[in-house]
Amino acid sequence: MAKIIKPQRLPGFRDFLPEEMRLRNYVLNVFIEVFELFGFDPLETPTLEYASTLLGKYGEEADKMVYTFKDKGGREVGLIYDLTVPVSRILSVYHQQIPLPFKRYQIQRVYRADKPQKSRYREFTQCDIDIIGVKSPLADAEVVAIIYRIFKKLGLDDFTIQINSRQVLFKLLENLEIKEEKKQLSVLQTVDKLRKQGREKVEDELGKKGLSSKQISDLFKQLEKITCDKNLEEMFSYLKKLNVPQEYVKFTPSMVRGLDYYTGPIFETVINDPPIGSLTGGGRYDNLISLLGGPDLTGTGSTLGFDRICDVIKEKKLLPNLAKTATAVLIINFPGFFDEAIQLANKLRENKIACEVYLEEKPIDKQFKYADRKGIPYVIIIGPDEVKKKVVKLKNMKTGEQKEIKIAEIVKLLNG
Amino acid sequence: MAKIIKPQRLPGFRDFLPEEMRLRNYVLNVFIEVFELFGFDPLETPTLEYASTLLGKYGEEADKMVYTFKDKGGREVGLIYDLTVPVSRILSVYHQQIPLPFKRYQIQRVYRADKPQKSRYREFTQCDIDIIGVKSPLADAEVVAIIYRIFKKLGLDDFTIQINSRQVLFKLLENLEIKEEKKQLSVLQTVDKLRKQGREKVEDELGKKGLSSKQISDLFKQLEKITCDKNLEEMFSYLKKLNVPQEYVKFTPSMVRGLDYYTGPIFETVINDPPIGSLTGGGRYDNLISLLGGPDLTGTGSTLGFDRICDVIKEKKLLPNLAKTATAVLIINFPGFFDEAIQLANKLRENKIACEVYLEEKPIDKQFKYADRKGIPYVIIIGPDEVKKKVVKLKNMKTGEQKEIKIAEIVKLLNG
Fold it and tell me: Cβ contacts (< 8 Å) between A349 and chain B: which residues?
C-alpha cells in the first residue's frame, strides 16, 4: 500500500457532513412519518439493474443519461435512473405476493450522467410514493394530500400544488383539430416550457411544429378558459374531504408536465419565493407499468424533490431548533475525575440523552472549543468542587449561562 | 416505448419488500439510536468515486472485487467497496472544518463483485462507526460498548465480543523469532483461519509459509497462555466503567482478524448459535488514514454486519411485536358511508395513527382479505348501524375479536 495522492470527489457528486445530514434526516423523517400515516410501506431495490431493464424506457435523451457498463461477469448493467422502472420490475416479479392496492414509498439514490448545475446532481436521492391498482381519483387526491401535509409539517406555506389533467388537455387539442397522439404529446412538451421560457418562445416552437397562427392563439385562449372535467372535479372534492384547504391546490391548465406517460390527473408543487422550479411532480399513469414490462395495472404517484426541498428549508431557515449535532451534552474529562464523568454519561445514556465524555485528557479550554465547534448545546463539568457539593456545573453554550445543578436533577433538566 | 420482456434482477442483488424493510428499518433505528447516544454523528459520501481512490488499498484480491468502469466523461470510476476509504477522503478534504475527535457513523450500500453465497451479497449495507484522532484505549472501549448496547437492545444475548491486540500478537511472533513485518502479517492471516478451517489446516499452511514444527507448536502453546498487555488491560477497565458486563467481552488470543492495517486492539462479535461467522469486526488502525491518502490521524472503529444481524434477528424470532406493515388500521370503504370513513381517517392521522381507507368500493370481504394479506392488525367498519349508534366496529385481525367502540374512544384505544 503506497502513499497516494490526495483523493478527490467526482463532479456532480456530494459529501454530506454531519450538519447537512442532520437536516436531511429531519426532512426524510417528516416524509416517512406522513407516508406511513397514509398507509404506505417502504420498498427498496438494487442500485444496479440489467441495462436492458433501464434503457429504452423514456426516450433517447434519458438513455444518454443512464450510467451503463459491463460487469465482471460480462453483463450489461446500469445504475438506476429513477424508481419507477424498479417498481414495475417488482410488480412483474412479485405480482402474486403483493396485495393490491400496493401503496409503497421508496427512497433511494438514483444516477443521471447529466451536466451538473445548481440543485442538479449526478447522484441524488429520489423519494417516490405510488398507489398501484386503484382507478378512483381518490388515489390521486391521497397523493396530493400527502404532499400538502409534508409541506405544512416542514413549515412551508407559500406553495401551490398545481393540478391539471391529461384528459382535459387531450380534449382541448382535439377541439383544435390536433388529433394524432404523437402530435398531441409533442405540443404538450412545448407548452410545458411556458413557465421557464415565456409565451413568445413557446409560440415560436409551436409554429415550427406546424401549428397555424390561429391554432396557436386558440390554444392560449382555451388554456385560459378551460375548466375541470368530471374526474378532476371528483378529485377536488376528495381533496376537500381530506382536509386540504382550497388555497393550496389550484387547477392550472398551463401545467402539462414533460413526460409522455401520464394519462389522467397530473400535479406539481411550486413555491413562489424563491422561484426554483417544481418541488414535486407526478400524476396518473394507467399504461406505464405494463409498458415498462410489469403487469397491466393502473397507477398514480409523485416524486418529491428531496434535495430541492432540503435547499428550500435551508434558504428559508425553517430549522430553528435543529442543532448541528445529535449530541446534547459534552462532559468534560476533568483530570482525576474521569470515573465521575463516565458514571454520569452512563446515567444520561440510560435516560436517552445523547452525550460524550471528551475522550482524552486535554486542557479544559480545548474541550470547550470542541463543544463549540461541533455545536453541542451544553457542557458539564464535574471536578473537585462539584463532587464535594454533589452537583455538576452546566454551561449553556449558546447563552454562556452557567449554573450548578444537583446530579439527581440533571436528567430532568436535559430531557425537558 | 415498445413492449419489453419480463425484467430480471441481477444475481447477488436483492429486493426488499415491505415486510423485510420493516425489519431492516427497526434494526437500523436501534443502531442509530445507540450511535447517537454516544455522540456519533451521521456522514454520507458518494456511491461513485474515482477508481484511483478505490484501487490499490487492500491488495489485489480486494481490487478484483471493485466494480470499475469508464463514465461518460472518460473518467475511470468505481462503486465504493467499503466506507473506510471514503472517510479517509473526507478527512483529507475537510480536515480544517471537522473538529477532532471526529466520531461519525456511516450507513450506506457498498459493492463487491464477489461470488454470491448465503449472507454474502454484491450489494450490501455497511454500518461503520469510527473515532478519529484519539489514542486512548477509552475510544476502543467506547466502540465495543456501543456494540454491546446494540446487541442487548436487539434482544440478543448469547454473543461474545472477542478482544485481542495486534501489539500482543506481534510481540508473541517476535518471541518466536518471526520478526519481519510482512512475515508477521502473513502468519496472522493464516492463524485467522483457525475458526473456519480448524487447527490441522492452519498448521499445514504455516508449514508451507516456512515455519518450523517447533515454531508452530510454540505458537499454539503461546496463544493459549498469552495474557493482556497494559493497553488492553486499560481497555478492559474502561469497558467495566462503561457498564459492559465481563461475560460479554473476552480476551481471545486466537482471534487475529484478516486485514493488515490494524495496529492495536482488535474486536469481533460472534454468536454461538447459529455459528455464522462474525457479526461485527473492527479495531485500531493508527496509520490507515494517512496510507489511504488522508491526514496523519489515529483511528479506531468497527463495522456492524447489518445484513447478517438482520438474518440472526429473523432466525431467532426476536421481533415479537413488529407488524408486517406500519399501517395500524384499515377503515372499510362502506357503500354510502365514505365521508364518515374519511373523517375518521383524518382524525386518526391527526393523532399519529397510521391508517388506510380502502380506496375503492369493493365487496367488504375483499377489503378484509386485503387487510389480512397486508398484515394490518385492525379493521374498522362504519356503516349505517354504527353511525346510528355513534360507534365504530373494531376487529382485531389476529384474535378475530370484534367490538363496538365510541368514536371518541377509538384514538385512545389504538394509541394504547
Answer: 37-38
Amino acid residing at A200: E
Cross-chain CB nearest to A16 (options B24, B44, B56):
B44
CA-to-CA separations, A191 to A42, A181, A214, A221, A251, in angstroms, rounded: 35, 15, 16, 13, 16
Q: How large is the angle between the packed helices A338-350 and A407-415, nearest 10 degrees?
A: 40
> Considering only CA atoms, which of A95, A101, A110, A90 is closest in space to residue A134?
A101
Chain mean position to CA A125: 7
Rounded CA gap, A151 and A160, in Å?
A: 10
In angstroms, what separates the C-alpha of B27 from chain A's closest C-alpha?
14
Residue type, A248: Y
Whole-angstrom CA distances from A224 to A161, A193, A232, B25 are 18, 16, 17, 48
Query: A126, A112 in Cβ contact below 8 A?
Result: no
- Between helix B181-191 and helix B213-225 the angle, nearest 10°, is 70
Hey, what amino acid is at A101?
A: P
The length of chain B, given as a count of residues: 416
B101 within 8 A of B39, measured Cβ to Cβ: no
Of A50, A90, A136, the CB nearest to B359: A136
Can you tell me the distance from the alpha carbon of B209 to that of B203, in angstroms, rounded to the nearest whole number?
10
Helices B407-415, B338-350: axis angle to 10 degrees equals: 40
C-alpha distance from B133 to closest chain A C-alpha (Å): 10
DSSP 8-state assignment for residue A248: G
β-sheet bridge partners, residue B25: none
Q: Can you give the pLDDT of all 416 residues of chain A as single tens digits?
A: 444 556 789 999 999 999 999 999 999 999 999 999 999 999 999 999 999 999 988 888 889 999 999 999 999 999 999 999 999 899 989 988 999 999 999 999 999 998 877 778 999 999 999 999 999 999 999 999 999 999 999 999 999 999 999 888 888 899 888 888 888 888 888 888 887 888 899 999 999 988 899 999 999 998 888 889 999 999 999 999 999 999 999 999 888 887 778 999 999 999 987 777 899 999 999 988 888 888 899 999 999 999 999 999 999 988 867 889 999 999 999 999 999 999 999 999 999 999 999 999 999 999 999 999 999 999 999 999 999 999 999 999 999 999 999 988 999 988 87
User: A370 to chain B: which residues are within 8 Å by CB?
Assistant: 99-101
**Residue contact B77–A10, C-beta within 8 A:** yes
Q: Per-residue b/e over B122-155, b at no fewer than 16 CB within 10 Å? A: bbbbbbbbbbbbbebbbbbbbbbbbbbbbbbebe
Convert the pLDDT of each residue in B94-115 to its tens digit.
Answer: 988 999 999 999 999 999 998 8
**B280, β-bridge pairs:** B269, B304
d(CA B90, CA B98): 9
Task: Give ∠ CA A20-B148-B62 in degrees, rounded to 5.
Answer: 65
Q: Do A7 and B342 touch (CB under 8 A)?
A: no
Indicate if the alpha-carbon torsion angle A147, A148, A151, A157 is positive or negative: positive
Asked if the Cβ–Cβ distance from B291 to A18 is below 8 Å, we say no
Between B41, B109, B356, which is nearest A325 by CB?
Answer: B41
Question: Between helices B137-153 and B18-37, what is the axis angle to 10°?
Answer: 140
Task: Count the neighbouring beta carbons within 10 Å of the beta carbon of residue B388.
Answer: 8
Task: Tell which of A10, A75, A368 to mutate to test the B interface (max B CBs under 10 Å).
Answer: A10
Q: Name the grid cell of A243.
A: 382536509
C-alpha pair distances (Å), B385 with each of A325, B381, B390? 54, 10, 9
Q: Nearest by CB to A21, which of B42, B346, B356?
A: B42
Q: Given an 8 Å threshold on Cβ–Cβ distance, is A359 in contact with B93?
A: no
Residues of B in contact with A330 (CB under 8 A): 39
Beta bridge partner(s), residue B391: B406
